[in-house]
Amino acid sequence: MPEPHPNEAVALKVGDAAPDFTLYNAAGQALHLSSALVEGPLALVFYRGDWCAWCQNQLIQLAALYERIQSHGADLWAISPQSENVNQALRERRGLPFPILADVDQAVMRAWGVFKEVDPEGRAIPYPSTYIVNQDGCIHGRHLGLGMRDRPQAREVLAAVTELTNGNQ
3-state class of 162 per DSSP? Predict the structure, then answer.
């Protein structure tokens, strides 16, 4: 039997209410979870940073399927602990069409239970995790990653969105 995820006790679970948050993109635009959910479900991808090759690969794969995700009435946001400027540079360099939001104070990744402490000053990076949030604000699906390679493939995110929007809950 596999070991439980180190954050299993604190990470949000399927069926939990998603805590609302507001984060900013590189243009300084505030994006609110509750406002986005009025439009449709949302996939949230927590990634470590632009220095992480596995994270970049996942984001590039998601970019290739982004229009298909949107065709199901859903959207996708990526969240990192890096600044808006670093996120925007990655977005431009890799041609990513979805918002990348800055969780610089790490409040969102802590509220969602995906943080991993990296030093004694309390700085953290997220475990590479993905959540699918239904329009009603409840968590429909999640993947808590452990290491660099442990993250869902883009086609798995698309499948979760498709399942949700087709009413196969």
Answer: helix
